[in-house]
């Protein structure tokens, strides 16, 4: 088990979240000192778990295009919206991790999009640019959970690697809970690649509903 450097909470601020579809909830935003990668990751604490209950947690990787601008090339925006409500209902934390483009950054992600428009899939585009298929490391996430005194959790994700990495960092992931399936005509190739290449648990049958599937 790696010896994790300790991080400590820096500011705790209450913020009323109001979404365009009318849903609203109050959140506590927590910032940190001492995160291993020096990034400004944010914890969004939602709801109040029953005393002794295991909290629901999501590690959400930043996606400016999907989270902010509503890009339909991926499923990040709807996953974020869903996660906030599910976590608020049960009680838990969303870690908003500054891992744009699976850790390669926004400009590189858009370079990868340009390659995808020439036919490469989402992972091959990363390697063609000289990056790993997925450059994310969850050490800072484990530090944040420790700083929030969360020792056991249920993880809201389709990505087995997130659970495995967290366990390797000493966090007790009890259950992995899949997110919803948010398909559009623009993201079906991307979702399919996640299932076939990185074993994301999305029901592949649902990904044949869209007509551009045969495009690759
Ligand atoms: N490099 C690269 N990153 C992408 C691409 N599309 C989305 N992303 C980034 O991928 C991250 C989300 O990762 P995903 O693989 O979609 O999903 P996940 O986080 O592994 O799994 P879930 O927890 O189930 O959502 C965000 O940081 C996005 O900015 C792409 O085509 N190339
Ligand atoms: Zn996205």
UniProtKB/TrEMBL annotation:
* Gene responsible for this protein: ribA
Domain GTP cyclohydrolase II, chain residue ranges per copy? 25-178
> Which CDD domains does this chain map to?
GTP_cyclohydro2 (cd00641)
Pathway in which the depicted protein is active: Cofactor biosynthesis; riboflavin biosynthesis; 5-amino-6-(D-ribitylamino)uracil from GTP: step 1/4
Q: What is its EC number?
A: 3.5.4.25
Question: Which cofactor does the UniProt annotation name?
Answer: Zn(2+)
Q: Which GO terms describe its biological process?
A: riboflavin biosynthetic process
Q: What is annotated as the active site?
A: 134 (proton acceptor), 136 (nucleophile)
For the ligand (GTP), the binding residues are 58-62, 79, 100-102, 122, 157, 162
The organism named in the record is: Streptomyces cadmiisoli
Name assigned to this protein: GTP cyclohydrolase-2
> Where along this sequence does the record place binding of Zn(2+)?
63, 74, 76
Q: How is the cofactor bound?
A: Binds 1 zinc ion per subunit.
Q: Which UniProt keywords apply?
A: GTP-binding, Hydrolase, Metal-binding, Nucleotide-binding, Riboflavin biosynthesis, Zinc
Q: What does this protein do?
A: Catalyzes the conversion of GTP to 2,5-diamino-6-ribosylamino-4(3H)-pyrimidinone 5'-phosphate (DARP), formate and pyrophosphate.
Reaction(s) catalysed by this chain's protein? GTP + 4 H2O = 2,5-diamino-6-hydroxy-4-(5-phosphoribosylamino)-pyrimidine + formate + 2 phosphate + 3 H(+)
Protein family according to the UniProt entry:
In the N-terminal section; belongs to the DHBP synthase family. Belongs to the GTP cyclohydrolase II family.
Alphabetized Gene3D superfamilies for the sequence = GTP cyclohydrolase II (3.40.50.10990)
One GO MF term: zinc ion binding
> GO CC terms for this protein?
cytosol
């Amino acid at each position: 088990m790696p010896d994790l450097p300790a991080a400590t909470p820096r500011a705790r601020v209450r913020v009323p979240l109001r979404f365009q579809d009318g849903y609203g909830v109050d959140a506590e935003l927590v910032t940190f000192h001492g995160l291993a990668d020096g990034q400004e990751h944010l914890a969004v604490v939602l709801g109040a778990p029953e005393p002794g209950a295991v909290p629901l947690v999501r590690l959400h990787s930043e996606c400016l295009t999907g989270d902010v601008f509503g890009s339909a090339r991926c499923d990040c925006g709807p996953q974020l919206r869903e996660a906030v409500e599910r976590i608020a209902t049960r009680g838990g934390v969303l870690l908003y991790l500054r891992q744009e483009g699976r850790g390669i950054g926004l400009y590189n992600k858009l370079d990868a999009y340009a390659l995808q428009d020439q036919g490469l899939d989402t992972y091959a585009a990363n390697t063609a640019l000289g990056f790993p298929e997925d450059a994310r490391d969850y050490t800072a996430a484990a530090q944040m959970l420790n700083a929030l005194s969360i020792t056991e959790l249920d993880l809201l994700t389709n990505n087995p690697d997130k659970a495995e990495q967290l366990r390797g960092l000493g966090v007790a992931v009890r259950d992995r809970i899949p997110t919803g399936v948010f398909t559009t005509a623009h993201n079906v190739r991307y979702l399919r690649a996640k299932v076939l290449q990185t074993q994301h648990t999305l029901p592949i049958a649902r990904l044949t509903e869209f007509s551009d599937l045969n495009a690759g």
